[in-house]
Fold each of these.
Amino acid sequence: MSLDSATVRRIAKLARIRVDDAEVGVLQTELNAILGYVDQLNEVNVDGVAPLSGGAQMAMRLREDTVTDGEQAENILANAPDRVGPFFAVPKVVE
Amino acid sequence: MSLLNLTIAEAARALGAKKFSAVELTAAHNAAIAALNPRLNAYITVTPELALAQAKAADARIAAGSAGPLTGIPLAIKDLFCTAGVRTTAASKILEPFVPPYESTVTRQLLEAGTVCLGKANLDEFAMGSSNITSGYGPVENPWKRNGSEARLVPGGSSGGSAAAVAARLAMGATGTDTGGSIRQPAAFTGLAGIKPTYGRCSRYGIVAFASSLDQAGPMARSVEDCAILLGAMSGFDAHDSTSAARAVPDFGAAIARGVKGLRIGIPAEYRMDGMSAEIAALWERGVAWLREQGAEIVDISLPHTKYGLAVYYIVAPAEASSNLARYDGVRFGARVDGEDLIDMYERTRAAGFGPEVKRRIMIGTYVLSHGYYDAYYLKAQKVRNLILRDFNNAFEKVDAILTPTAPSAAFGLGEKMDDPVTMYLNDVFTVPASLAGVPAMSIPAGLNAEGLPLGLQVIGKHFDEETVFAVSAALERAAGFTAMPSVRAE
Amino acid sequence: MAYSLEGKTGTWEIVCGLEIHAQVISESKLFSGASATYGGAPNAHVSFVDAGFPGMLPVINRECVAQAVRTGLGLKAQINLVSRFDRKNYFYADLPNGYQISQFEQPIVGTGDVEIELQDGTIKHIGITRLHLEQDAGKSMHDQHVSKSVIDLNRAGVALMEIVSEPDIRSPEEAGAYLRKIRQILRYLGTCDGNMEEGSMRADVNVSVRKPGEAFRTRCEIKNVNSVRFVMHAVEAEALRQIEVWESGGEVRQETRLYDPARGETRSMRSKEDAHDYRYFPEPDLLPLVLEEAFVAGLKAELPELPDEKRRRFCEEYGIPFYDAGVLVAEQATADFYESVAKGRDARLAANWISGDFFAAMNRTGRSIENPPVSGAALGELIDLIADKTINGRIAKDVFEEMVESGKPPGAIVEEKGLRQVTDTGAIEAAVAQVLAANPDKVAEYKAGKDKLFGFFVGQVMKAMQGKGNPALVNEEVKKQLG
């Protein structure tokens, strides 16, 4: 499978990364090289093999339902690039 | 006496014997950093005052008789670990202004053990790279030089700043993280020991995530014993990390002295790749001989899916990364570039904040998860990952540990291997399979190549059997007698 | 008779399914220790995990898991002992991580069944496809600043259950009944407060139309409808819109729409620049959720009696009509109130009192079952006074009103006002004789065959006795004296 420039643009859009025309060409070449490399997985027979999604093979631990965190709005907001009072602020969203 | 050439174990004994103070030890390292860091760029942020304050507290603890083996030991902390009140960048411009209000579990445990934080070590941006050239804060120079050459070499990556700092005596040890070889490969490139423990051994809480199912913290130091001491303090169960293992931390240091008599060491046929350099092949042979001489039984084994490890890795890691890095959107922390509307702001922020390698991996990761391609790429990769795990499980029915080279070459020059991303990715070919399987693996310096650059051997163990990894690594260390030092170093 | 809509080209049938998002009742959030309580100062109920800070990791809340299992059991659904969490990736200002942790391929609860009752008494079954756990998002507000939207993350990370129905719903009424029933079950279980005004329950409504017997046609999804009434209106408005599209030769496009209650119509959401591609994949920060059979069995054993069972039991145990039982079990608190009154008394009388005068007084005074106009004990006492013939039913109504008014116990009111009913046959004989004597013409008419006048005589006697005569004895005496 190989990527055309329209797909590169679509993926960049999904990933919310602005790319200019020159970058699209470079990315297309590089991404196709990577995809070309990983295509070797097509050789492997995986019939009946379960996917392995995690690094750890155990069941999940469950936490007790108690309030142990929060009440630190200033810490939460301290790194915000923009804020309005006790809120984070972003360019106006029109819904 | 130079305070800079000691191992951690030696320094701890000297501190205990009051031969020098923790403040003196830290001051010596602060001075070394001031002298050499402008050239090596091993640290992104240095914290000399904080270090001295911590050293002072360590001296008080030593005086009070409540010191541990790491009290007063100055370390470099990879700038991927969040440190409360100390800027944490992940070597990315997008986190340039970020000061975490919290401490990672691993660094918190190290602080509790009394260590001193000298500063935040450089790395590949978001730990994505094998050379440290993708850092948003400039590349790190490897303190090692080829014989008779002043050419700048890379320290490996992603924990290249940690590696360069420890090798050049700008820290006694360092924390690293390893996703596909990011501790082991730079350790090999700089003549250090470094271990990636079992997935789940060290908490990931507070470590900036690259690929969640692969990321593991681990130590880098100038001896196997130092790594054992550091790992003991770094590891342990953490309720804040759902993937953290609820297991007791063994006495890794005690395993150092076990020896390898009677151990079965596997030599995987598939790691003898086409075009492996004669030097690397010879080093490997030497390692086999050392272990045999010390009483180990050498067993030929097969890890048939090894060759697919890199392909699996370059699907799984970018996929997870593309999602993990979605939070860098200019809203709650980090850098922002204003835009006409929300989407425009996101796109400009991320375009300006991420470097080319990070963008590439986010793009690949987004693509392999996207509608219509998930099964062909991501699901397929997860299935092959399971086959790689099975390979290891099968092998470990026959052997106690596996010996391989760490990397296919010695450190290369800045600007080499940069023609295309795939060539660079091949650096990780020997380290990635253990990451995919989640098993512990350690690199130890085993010799120099003809150009005078260090080469590493890798010992891979069973899940949660770091003790055997340390035992085998220590045996190799004893046999190798590696005493070479980089030409650029503080004295 | 099945519901249908008449178009120009004939009869149309609605096909509808609901995705209900219900906020789980818990102390803390699904994956963090911050408070899950509604309200709070902006960004106060927020941990670094909820705000998606670097290096933060989710750890799942046992109670949220238990609540999902309880709900699954209440919906008579399959509990999946192994389930898994996935990431749903998309960018939005109030989604801190850039992904929502949800369950995509392996939800915690599988297929189930819910019984609904329609106005005409018909019982219908609606299939449950699945229930899964996921995180709520934060809140964006667009009216707080002239050029900016502002974000409060207090809700970010609160546990939600998404309950997905089969496309079994065939009318606006069924949609409403289904939503009400789910709400009722969740409130009984204590797994969601069902407060639709505060947004703790909301529904995405999937609607399509078809000619009877056809396969499904294209559906549209109406997002975030937040009341039963709006759901019913939205289903109808959307169905009518689709019929018009089909009948005018057009084609219904699969899309997401919004219901506008002011206009009573649905409209297309501003089409996004790029189609959604959520790139679901297994959440690598979490492990598979594996439940012990004993854990599920323990929850099952502690499950409260649910409305359907309670209603059937009320019919059997208390001998009340099915309809009345339905009214009494609508809310758990009402059912408990009823039982506290009915136990050991005339249960049918108790049912009549509660669904009659008691509800009327509650509505009139603006009070609730938790803060009733008359306590259960006092109402029981009043019914006891009727049963032991201290007062008759007619007087009881006055006493009840006085109880509402003054809060005094019924016994005291009866004594104070001398309302004990008269059972002295002598007094009744005298009163009846007096009334008959005063109305000789009416007596003649009665005897000539005008039976209806019997009630008139009884009424006159009761009036003469200020309502306190024992009705049975009065009847008997009137009959006797009229011969």
Amino acid sequence: MFSIIRFFTLVSAVFFASASSSMAAEGHDHLPASAEVLFEAGWFKFTNSTLMMLIVAVFLIVVAQLATRKITLVPSKLQNFVEWILESLINFLSGVLGESLAKRTFWFFGTLFIMILFSNWMGLIPGVGTIGFFNVTPDGDPYPGDTFTPLLRGANADLNMTSAMAVAFAILWFYWAVTETSVKDFFAHIFAPKGKFEGVMLVGMIVIFLFVGLIEVASIAFRPVALMFRLYGNVYAGENMLESIMNMVPLDYVKWLAALPFYFLELLVGLIQALVFTLLCAVFLRLICEHEHDDEHAH
Amino acid sequence: MTVSAFILASTEAAVEAADQSPVEKIVDKFGLHWSLFISQLVAFLIVCFLLKKFAYGPVMEMLEQRKHRIEDGETKLIEIEKQLEESEAQKAALLEKANADAKRMITEAKDSATAFGEQKAQEAVAQAQTILNKAQEAARAERAAMAAELKQEFGRLVVATTSQVAGKELNAADQKRINDEAVSSLN
């Protein structure tokens, strides 16, 4: 049903920034919880957040390519900036994971942080959420309900994106945990009693730690869920807040002024959420690998 | 589609939603869809791969290279500083030795010059004395010769005078006697 209605959608207007937001507000009283489909072909759907994610990805790849195309020992300005970001990140991650593990997993954690950060910040650029088109029925009437579909939506304001990153981490977490330790150590870390026990005490502890292990498994299983909803919730709430505040102002051309202070807040939130997601993932990995390392030190 | 049709569709959707499990409601509410999830996942992993290829790899390699260069530079700097200290010490020792040698040589040269000067002065004095003695001896010899010549002349003059006064030719024995008497009267 939804796809049929979309089929009859007509692009009726494209507006920038505050001007468009005022018009968008007429048929777009709230930001929908899910990303809106721009087009679909069979099972394949393409949403406005996917488009945003691709723009961010292309931007990052182009910047990376420009910075490293003529890489030199004495860096250019862009190369210096990219080196500064990456070196700061690897140092930050080395502090959590240790140098060896940080280098091994940097391709993932580095991309995770950069991708989340730039997705969050680029979602604040005027036009994101306000440039789009109005949907009308085949009869030419305004589409009932939410009639405005923005072309772009913050990439992390889509649970598909945050869940993709969280699930990717969960799989890689298991792989890295097993390869950094061993399958036996991995399960021993979760289920085996900690400390030295003998006799009846040992049996009791095995039962207790088995139970604790089950709780730990549940905790591990919920980690990606928590990660994806935390990031999604913060970014979606931020965008919703900005849109609501702008809609509260009756004068079209000063709507942006009311939201301006909150843009700075959202810049900060964007950075913090990128840090929180990356840091939590790194800490989860560290926790599972720590056991083996501690044992090695003890030996 | 009219508004009433939309309301009907919404009502049907609401009835369907009431039959959904909590997970299905969440999935539906937040628009979770496996095709979107897979496409986002693949896109994210492609970005990971491309950033690793274009950014992390070259930049990390460059950082590592720079780190090694700085480490090498630091090591070389320490070596150079050490060498500089050693060469400074060597230079100071050489200068000290050269100063000492120079002082010694100057002292030796002074002593040698003084001794040489004294020697030469003594030689000059001795030579002068020799010359003086020779001159004195020559003067004495010359005076003696002149005296002898004078005596002979005086004797000849006395003989000649005597011959004139006597008015006769004196023989050789008389001349000799008169000459000897005249010379002996001079002594």
